[in-house]
Amino acid sequence: MAHALSVYAVPVAIGAVAVVLLLGLGNMLRGGSPNVSQRLMRWRVVLQLVAIAIIMLTVWAMRQ
């Protein structure tokens, strides 16, 4: 389980955070809607929480 988490879940979670961050930054740099930027930054925070939870679960599973 730890191997699958570290190989698949962690990179996907980190990649999702990076994609949403870049989308939000791109929207702000283009002068897009502030509402879209705000929504993307909220998604980024939620995805960061999920990524941290997956990373902590992976660390826990590796110690077992």
Automatic annotation (TrEMBL):
The chain crosses the membrane at residues 6-25, 45-62. InterPro entries: Hypoxia_induced_domain (IPR007667). Keywords: Membrane, Transmembrane, Transmembrane helix. Residues 1-64 form the HIG1 domain. Pfam families: HIG_1_N. This is Twin transmembrane helix small protein. It comes from Rhodoplanes serenus. The lineage of its organism: Bacteria, Pseudomonadati, Pseudomonadota, Alphaproteobacteria, Hyphomicrobiales.
